[in-house]
Design a protein that fits this description.
Layout: H1 2-18, H2 24-49, H3 53-72, E1 77-79, H4 85-92, E2 94-95, H5 97-124, H6 132-153, E3 159-160, H7 161-179, H8 181-191, H9 193-198, H10 203-229, E4 231-233, H11 239-251, H12 263-282, H13 287-315
Helix pairs in contact: 1-2, 1-3, 1-10, 2-10, 4-10, 5-6, 7-8, 8-10, 11-12, 11-13, 12-13
Amino acid sequence: SVGAVSGLSSAIVAVVFMQADLPLWVAVVAAVSCGAAIGLVYGLLSAYLGLPSFVLTLAGLLVVLGVQLWVLGDTGSVNLPFDTWLVRFSQQGFLSTTTSLLVAAGVVALNAWTLVHERRRRERADLPADSLVWIGLKVVGLAVLLAVSILYLGRDRGIGYPVVLLLLVVTLTDVGLRRTRWGRAVRAVGGNVDSARRAGMQVRRVTVQVFVISSTFAAVGGVLAVGRLAAANQGSGGAEASLTAIAAVLIGGVSLFGGRGSAWSAFVGVLVVQSIASGLTLMNAGLSVRYMIIGAVLVLAVALDTRLKRGALQAR
């Protein structure tokens, strides 16, 4: 129900700001808080009642869509003024080329420090570690990729603020999943719930936390969407958004069975899905062709994931 939560968040921002005449920041806080509350309900029902998460969120999709229609009311569509800070942030905010290059330099430096630190940790634990040459090649490759992308986008208006926010969220999520005790608990619960419970991990707590974070991110996406379109309507965050979200993470290599994947792999999946959609649009292909091709790519991704899972089980 990622798409449904996103659509409800868009509707709350538009209605609270335009019809209730409350400040825009209050509308944004209300939308994000509603998203977190939905995730909390999902997490409690899944963790403490043992409801299958897929069926639970599928039913939740219908409920949230109903709430979205109720919030919008008879108008069906609510527009936002173009001079509001949210619309300006989502549509008209861009980083200059110089600022983008400075930020990219910081990212490259942080990445280099992380790789070297990880190499030292693995050496102290007598584990295989990447060579300094390989680390250098990865750092240089990242620097070249960022520089080329920034210089190319700088030929027009630069990198939009929402893209910067997305990269920041992905980076923080990746660090949280790979570098913290909480992230290791998430992977453990995703890989094998029984083993995680026997290891003394708070499985229920982790499950609730992941639901809340996921739903909150969906709500933030809805806030950015209503700013991007300067409007919210009954079609905001429809079924296509949920299916695209699922397709993106699976194509990016996040396991359908849990325990494998990263925030950056999900980001790569988003790039793949959007590249396919943009390419088909430039080719004047219809929406039907777009659905069929993305669906075929999704089937291949699921088939590969299933085969890898089966191979891992056989190896054990």
